[in-house]
What we know:
Chain A is α+β, with helices and mostly antiparallel strands. Chain A has helices spanning 41-51, 81-92, 123-135, 156-166, and strands at residues 27-36, 58-65, 70-79, 97-102, 109-120, 139-143, 147-154, 171-176, 180-183. The longest helix of chain A is centred in the last third of the chain and has 13 residues, at 123-135.
Amino acid sequence: xxxxxxxxxxxxxxxxxxxxxxxxxxxxxxxxxxxxxxxxxxxxxxxxxxxxxxxxxxxxxxxxxxxxxxxxxxxxxxxxxxxxxxxxxxxxxxxxxxxxxxxxxxxxxxxxxxxxxxxxxxxxxxxxxxxxxxxxxxxxxxxxxxxxxxxxxxxxxxxxxxxxxxxxxxxxxxxxxxxxxxxxxx
Amino acid sequence: xxxxxxxxxxxxxxxxxxxxxxxxxxxxxxxxxxxxxxxxxxxxxxxxxxxxxxxxxxxxxxxxxxxxxxxxxxxxxxxxxxxxxxxxxxxxxxxxxxxxxxxxxxxxxxxxxxxxxxxxxxxxxxxxxxxxxxxxxxxxxxxxxxxxxxxxxxxxxxxxxxxxxxxxxxxxxxxxxxxxxxxxxxxxxxxxxxxxxxxxxxxxxxxxxxxxxxxxxxxxxxxxxxxxxxxxxxxxxxxxxxxxxxxxxxxxxxxxxxxxxxxxxxxxxxxxxxxxxxxxxxxxxxxxxxxxxxxxxxxxxxxxxxxxxxxxxxxxxxxxxxxxxxxxxxxxxxxxxxxxxxxxxxxxxxxxxxxxxxxxxxxxxxxxxxxxxxxxxxxxxxxxxxxxxxxxxxxxxxxxxxxxxxxxxxxxxxxxxxxxxxxxxxxxxxxxxxxxxxxxxxxxxxxxxxxxxxxxxxxxxxxxxxxxxxxxxxxxxxxxxxxxxxxxxxxxxxxxxxxxxxxxxxxxxxxxxxxxxxxxxxxxxxxxxxxxxxxxxxxxxxxxxxxxxxxxxxxxxxxxxxxxxxxxxxxxxxxxxxxxxxxx
Lengths: 186, 584
């Protein structure tokens, strides 16, 4: 019998490892997906992620071209490089998906998120909250004698940072839109 | 001026314009207007099934044996949910289907109406695409788009959900030529640089192997023709997945047999030992690869696939080529010829010498018997007695399916219909009826196990009503054979619930349906019985009582690489480790 017939229990290993040496590195990517604004399209995208076990860190969607009935879905996801490639290929084969852009690899991009913070407090805490809001260029969009609602736009990191500062000062609720992103330049 | 008609009439008109000849379906409240429109015409034949799952499998059999999309019409609610298994089956095996479902009227959607189900929601993950049409004006265009999507790119099932008021309302019919399909146009031509790279590799390869799959068959008969020409011209060995059998003839001298978990010794060792793997329209399924880390460790790999998400999904390849198999093979063959038809002849001769040694192992050998019919023997006799006939084979799922793949030879594409990806027991009987409807004069045989066959046996009524003389060749071991085999190898011979007591008398069952029943338990009577089955003008239920505890070999246990194959009972002790046990 041939030398290739290695019997059970052998410890033979492959001549080279088929896995990417960086295969276990988890990367975060921001994907922009242009879709037909038809019923069920968001369910298709989300169903793909849940059905195949991919992660969604954030997701935003809105119609961007009323005439052409196109929506833009911005997804922040994470996975190994191989999984990221799979996610893009899987998104690409959904019939109402027109374009899939990986803003993380296609050059520099701007990412912004809008957040609303409800902060309740009195005395020094209230004054400190207002002072920090000014530093972060957050706007007051609602005010009572015991509370503020701040509105802020920025990168997810900036919003995280502001939320951390507000927490001891009486942060009650946060609403975040998730990331909207565009590539830089023309 | 566009013709004005009802939504129901549009469905029928659009089918006609799409060249539909047969619809498999089952009526119900929410599709009555469409059934009324079908009643008033004679161009489209309707085959009334006994269960909606049967309708979808029939359409699959029809599609796979003709290359045309299969069409299904069922009602809302349970009609749609019963179709789900068939849809998933078609999605996994890339079979083009267009399924029409009725729906409650638009104004009742969301009210939990009678026979209401969220059909597009339920079928979203098991269709290539689906549509809920709420406006009669858009119905015709949607149907044309649906046929386009089902048959272009990687084929698959699509579904159109049509509320009853949309079927009654009138609108302007749109002809297929005017429907907008521009957006969904998958790429057919492969990247020429990548194809050149593939050809260069082929010129120098010492131990090449073609590993082909269902993509060759889906690409059409021309792709199979090109593949044959390429194989003959290069002299490379070729193996195929379960889905791809027939694209290269089993009688060809380059044929290694099927590969994978129950593939041949020579095919699997070729895969393990090759230095160039040419994957043409297959997808590195887990039944094929075994343990990923040890899969074909010393080869460079080329993968041709029309679906970008198949490339580098499971196995990292050196040359991925996105495109249609037929187009890529045509370019590759032309290029290879233009560059002087080079192959590494001395190395190939050595490779074939090695293959001859592997072949000599005679891995499909089994212990024969004079007293009981061995399932392998039954299939060998079936093969011998039907060879050269205009023959189509379908199967159910399990041991008999693997033996059929091992022991029946397929000379042409579209002659072999089996549930590969989903492994749907109950597929074969309805599929055989679908094939027979498409090829009324051909010999259609469903190679079945008794357990699988019982899952959709109600469709014998359909076979009788529509005069589909499909032969049901049941290898009856009174066991769930494959489950029993795994329990023996993996679960300490504790045969939990894998034994069917109280099986029906299949001959009487045949009589009850009005067809012919044949029972055979003696190997000496087998040939005559098979000939009786073939000659009978009508459906036959053939109860072939076989050895009850036969195992299917060769077998690569779960979690093992290709070169750790079990060839027979002697190899089975402790074959599957704890790690393999969690795999299916």
